[in-house]
Write a structure and sequence with these properties.
Structural class: alpha/beta
Distance between the termini: 55 Å
Number of helices: 17
Shape: elongated
Number of domains: 2
Strand order of the largest sheet: 6-7-8-3-9-10-11
CATH superfamily of the largest domain: ABC transporter type 1, transmembrane domain
Number of strands: 11
Order of helices and strands: HHHHHHHHHHEEEHEEHEHHHHEHEEEE
Strand content: 5-15%
Length: 576
Amino acid sequence: MRPLDPRLLRYSAAARGYLAVTVALGLAATGLILVQASLLAHLLAGAATGTGVAVLLGPLALLLAVLLARAAAGYGGETAALRAAAAVKSQLRRRLTDHALRLGPSWLAKNRSGEVTTLATRGLDGLDAYFARYLPQLVLACVVPFAVLIRVGLTDWISCVIIGLTLPLIPVFAILVGLHTKATTQRQWRLLARLGGHFLDVVEGLPTLKLFGRGKRQAEVIGTVTEEYRAATMASLRVAFLSGFVLELTAALATALVAVEVGLRLLAGHMSYQTALLVLLLTPEAYLPLRAVGAQFHASTEGAAAARDVFEIVDTPLSAAGAPPARAPAAGRPVCLRTDVIRLSGITLTYPGRDHDALSDVNLTIRPGDRITLAGPSGAGKSSLLALLLRFAFPSSGRIEVGGADLASVPLGEWRSQIAWVPQQPYLFATSVAGNIALGHPAASREAIARAARAAGAAEFIEDLPQGYATMVGEHGLRLSSGQRQQIALARAFLRDAPMLLLDEPAAHLDAASAARLDTAISTLLAGRTVIQVTHAPGRASGGDRVLTLDHGRLTQVLALMPAGSAPVALAAVPS
């Protein structure tokens, strides 16, 4: 690991002011060290030669003031460094979250969300030690030894030469130890990320594990990973203690060498008592910052390792998630899904790491107000087509146009603000029922929320909850059944009042009566809006729908359903 990672400063401009204060206070502390040693040597020499107390009162008071100022500089430096750490963590977390959102679900599916969560929380918290302890000591290690050498050199050149020759030994030993520490710390951090990610997966899937009797096995896996993490942590501590011993021993031997030669010359009368005291007081100060920075290096490596992982994610190009190169915003008026036609021309979608196409040469026109049902077996490409419209995935070839403009040139926020989406497994947050329904429209009134709930068939069970719409649903909405979670997600989509609604198996968890009410709500409430719903069987479609049949990523048949009681009519057939 490099002594100072410049990316931490480049990605955290908000911390530069605090770091400047830390450096300034470090420089002030260096000057105070020199003044303190000079005053202390003068006082001890004066006391040894019988100087009167009255004469020494002034230097003694000044020494006390210097000690207080040095303590204040140390406190201020650490406080500023902690504020810098807080600013850096906040900015890195924002950047990490923002870029992960830009990379989208397809990228996150390949990277365990639990590990990313551990990285953004426990991992970045390790930067406190990096900024509050390691960086201030690094500043002192760069300044104090040179200041001491200059001060000692002006007083006694022989001691200056000895200190100058022995000082490089400490960073050399620190580098040698650091080469071994890097691998140990990286392994420790990887195990922690793995442990956090696996534990989160186990907690989320606990009901399923209990149902299939696999809870004990997963507990054993967590125990194994925990033991590996414990062993890695103890190995890191062992290296830290041994490296501290090496650095302390080197500094002690170097200080003893200076003390011996000073003592011999003092006995021979070749050096004054005050000069000898000054050299002996300053010599440990020359080695102390180097020893301290070596010790704090180990405490900071976990945070620095986590920061490197954050940089890897933040620097990941959007193309890694299948996104096309950035394009200039579309000229002219903004797109409007209430009036603009969407055209998919020759669309092929291949997910990274897969050897077959999720979609192949799909051509489709979606007009405002269309009612489209995507039918086909699992894996046929239905959800992939929705992912393209949501811009969670991007076509490998072909073109998607909206109102004549390339979809890639439409700002992402502008596009998604016109879409409501209900996935197969909707996510509910640990807040109230009303808060979950109002997710896409936070300013909605309670009356509007209740109307959306009634339209989705959720009002009845919500009103039976202990606190009605104010009832907390718990993490992932686990206090509700699958059907109830689906109905809340549908209410959320209805409340959004978006011109396009994407429904991925909306009735998968609903009983027959609820599914019938949903069909009625879609027919009445969403009249004039574009509705695209995914189903395994075309029988779920209602009158007026266009039914698109997908098979192995190819659009094989397009049917139009006539009003109830009429047979479907094939409009087009696309060879497979």
